[in-house]
Amino acid sequence: MKRNYNNNTDVFKLIDKQHAKQAAENRAYLVEIIRTIVFLCKQGLAFRGHREHGQSFNKGDFLELLALRSLDNPLIKKNLNTLKFTDHKIQNEIIELLQQKILTKILNECRRAKYYSVMNDETTDISCHEQVSSVIRYVDDKLNVFEKFVGFERTASMTGEALCALLIKWLSKLDLKLENLVGQCYDGGSNMRGEYQGVSARLRQVASLGIYVHCNGHILNLCLIDVSARVPSVRNNFGVVSSLYNLIEGSAKRQQVFENIQKEAGLQALTVKQLCETRWTCRFECLKVILLRFNEIVTTLEVTAISDGFLLLNSLQSFDFIIHLFIMSEIYLLTNVLSKSLHYSNISLTDALVQVKITVDTLKSLRNEPEFERFYSEAMKLCDSNDIVPPKEIRKKKVPARFGGGVDAPAALNVKDHYRINIYYTILDTIIPAINGKFDENVLDIVILMEKLFLNKELLNDNEIQELSQHYSISYDDLKVEQRLYKTKMNDQKMNLSQATKFILENNFHIAF
């Protein structure tokens, strides 16, 4: 009974061989399942459908993709209805294993780099729970920069103390040493950047190298939001702009009317843009469309003939709105140029601050009567071409004699002076200090010294070398000699970040120093 007399083979060996063959086939099938899961994860697609039973027309992306692959994959076709491996618990387990594998690879790369930075941001998810998203930034041996998302952490408190404790606990769990943390980047909330109680200050107490940097683009956006919030006339007129977007773009019929009116005028069809606090360039784009298509927008509101449209039309056809349109378009054009410069991947902090100063100086140059006259004249021309009533002189208030009135009553400003002093100058006097004040937070002496060391031909003086050597705990003498060698090889050329990286690699300075 123990032998197959035809081929003289042990029955148990046959069973073992068949079992090994089946196990290999199961593993191969599981590999196909994993490949399917990896594809859906990479594409960011949902896995499960609303109903996954056999009679369902659409069983969800995971099962439908497996069914599609089974048409030209015999292994999947054979096992899909028997072995399966398609239960949602198995899906989640495989995803968890993939997550651990990816995270391990990222952390190994980060540990090889030794030094790293962290970027954190807090958001509220769809279930109204506060969560902190975490990213680590590091470079490889070729000085390529990597920014890797490494997870979410739920938090019950948004204080600087709680968030700092959460970050330290998270870094400990990832086995990343705090003494190797050289940078931290968060938003501008007081709980994050507070000088004494914020996360950045608390983390510096245990990670002294961790310089806090606030995103320059985000700083600029906060400055623009400040103007909209602190100047009532700007806030009110942006309310008109938001209502205009909601009225035209919120209705397919009115949007089509607006498009047809533009085409009949032989113009390219543009859409009214939405104001958005998180999109840094949307304000300029929004005002630009209104300026370019002012006549067509007015015609659209007249044609649609609804009560909200007439109310909006009255606001739109006012001198107050029009002059704000011209003033804010110019300001947002200037800040839009700055925003694009700050988005340049190779821009250094030094160059960014130079661009900020140029923008501020340009804004300051606008604060005079001739420049205001230019805006006032443009607004009057648009009013004349659209039969809009020009601004009326402000009526002088007569104070009754019993309240101290009489010949000594203060004279009221004429309408032009009112818009120059109370509107135009107020806007500029709000945005200029806002930009200066908020960007002063990012004047980081250590970073600027590092840029001077690597990007400029100018030698650091002894005090600057001492400051760098103390901050990074490196030898003063070594740094002084290495600087001399580096600057000599530079041959009096000024470089950007990309060029400096290439220069360091080509000359093996990252190995020698």
UniProtKB/TrEMBL annotation:
Matches recorded under SUPFAM superfamilies: Ribonuclease H-like
Pfam families: DUF4371
Highest rank taxon of the organism: Eukaryota
Sequence ranges assigned to domain DUF4371 in this UniProt record: 15-198
Name the UniProt record assigns to this protein: DUF4371 domain-containing protein
Lineage: Eukaryota, Metazoa, Spiralia, Gnathifera, Rotifera
